[in-house]
Structures
1.
Amino acid sequence: MRIKTLSYLALALPALLTVTAVKADMLSDIKARGELRCAVYSDVPPFSSPDPQTRQLVGMDVDLCTALAKQMGVKLQLMPTSVEARIAVIATGRADVLIANLAYTKTRGSQIQFSDPYYIAKEMLLVKQANADQPLSYFKGKRISATKGTTSEQSIGLKGGKAVTFQDTASGFLALEQNKSVGFVTNTMTAIKLITQAKKDGIELAMAKEPMALEPIGIGMKKGEESLLTSVNASLKAMDDAGTIDSIWNTWIGPNTEYKMVREDRVQPLSSLKFEPLE
């Protein structure tokens, strides 16, 4: 009887292992259900936010999700999430991928895996026009404002500045306007908007030429899903080569939008980039 039981187990074990392997392979699950579960922000324009008329989510990241699902040959299911929950929704497997203007950091890299970046965001130092041509070394030891708990704050320490933090962007920016700090650090998109805003108030601001930090933006996935990572990277490269990413970029944050952003980077391996990751 024992021999029969052992024989049965010996025959059943390979099948059980095969089932387990398939179940653990997220790409196989996506193909089987014919649907990609893509997590995006619930309300962070221009990346993903409700359209005022239709209440459907629209934005750059929504379009990237749509293009990725099409490239992978499956339907799309959008999964709205918050800034606070966006890593957890991937780490726990509730969504297959996360497209939420997601910058690579050491902490996030230990929690989830990242695709090849499709652009490089920059933390930029916003200063009064008189200091626009100063090198970053000029600002070492000086008071520089930023929003508390952000990668902008981290970059100030990285460059040797003295971080003065605030709970929101408006307060940190006001510190610069009122000369309570010599600079304010934020991403390029926000910096461009703030320069325009300040000009209306008669204040001339500019971005320092050298970035405070580089932040590769990629697609987040659960760790250990190598097949999915390979598929997503191949899809991104195909979308880049076809001009799809450029088209989406120009629609939402390009030169003819209020953000006036020019896409300078192509899809490339994260390992090929020379940058110092933030925490």
Note: Residues 1-10, 16-22 have pLDDT under 50 and may be disordered.
2.
Amino acid sequence: MNRILEPEVMDTWLEATAYDAMDFTAVNTAFATEAISLDPHAVKVLDIGTGTARIPILMCQQRPQYLFTAIDLAQSMLIIGQRNVEAAQLTQRIRLERVDSKRMPYPDLEFDMVISNSLVHHLPEPYLLFQEIKRLIKLDGAILIRDLIRPENDRVVNELGAKFGSNYDPQQQQLFQDSLKAALTLVEVRELIDRVGLTQVKLSQTSELHWTIERQKNIIDRI
């Protein structure tokens, strides 16, 4: 199956509220736990494509020193995210900003950890995101990037939609299937890593639906 791009920015109020209403609790908790394990002592953390800020909230609730810059291009997502941050009483530690992930206004080597969950499939040119991650992460910094894997054909898309989206309403089901079709394959992700020259990272398929790139802090020093 060829990649079928979806809109880069989910910025209607209907899309944002539908997304925030989808139950990603287990997936987000697993992501947050893994990210923390890669550097529990980090301070400056960048979340690229934060959506409604659920993952930064989970991580800050477990690690009191984390200071997040959490970015997204969708203003509607950020509005809901700000409400979520305020409800969690974390406004002093999570700063939400409307920023394009392909051109981020932060200094080189600025962050101890860079994370991104389910953003890559939205981007027509994900190479630009990977290039920015390499620029912004400290040389020994932790990285965790996760996204969907594109299935081989429409039949598999439908099967995965039925298996994992059975509790979704029709709009949420459509969002999920469109995301699968817009995702990358493992081969395509590996090509991006090699092209950018992102070093000492591990790429693997970590579920029936997802690929993951990870790098633990100080791994460069230990090799």
Note: Residues 18 and 172 are 7 Å apart (CA to CA).
3.
Amino acid sequence: MIDVYSWATPNGHKVHILLEECGLPYRAHPVNIGAGAQFRPEFLTISPNNKIPAIRDPEGPDGHAITLFESGAILLYLAGKTGRFLPPDDRGRYEVLQWLMFQMGGVGPMLGQNHHFRLYAPEKIPYAIDRYTNEAKRLYGVIERRLAASPWLGGEDYSIADIAIWPWLRNWEKQGITLSDHPHLERWFTAVGSRPAVQRGIAVLADLRKPAHDAQSREVLFGAQQYAKR
């Protein structure tokens, strides 16, 4: 049983989805980032960078427990552990890895800033809103061009590249994007979203996400939710 310390955000969803796709049994431990739970000392022992998600697998590569933080590293670990969603050959693997790195270095940080300045910043700053909305449009354009040439982001098969990027695009409308302007991306977006494991993954912890001012949401960790192997 893998322990997942997470929250219902795009970075958390990536790991939830892959666990569901792989059929691995896991317990989800909510870390309420809206209430600052990620800064508690007990979470720092698992995730030194104060970020969700993190995992603990009691059956690591050498038969001993391993703890991992950073969602990209977790995706690579789980893909390696199960032999799924990452091609075994060098060429195919690097095709996927470059798009995984694209998410980690571009899509995640830039769309995160887009969300902040468009939705959450206490002061509306036109320069920042324009900057990150334009960058979001550029990134969507990169993805659209890739999907015009390939059925999936990493190549011929669904992979951790698709799993990493898809959750970040769920709020496309709030990011200032018109999805119908990107027909190849829209086709891919629908295909990924229709997968049962994806639908289960984005539901994990979703019922616990509440506004930071809610008294109950100030709890650091709720009782773990357990997910059986399917």
Note: The first strand starts at residue 2 and ends at 6.
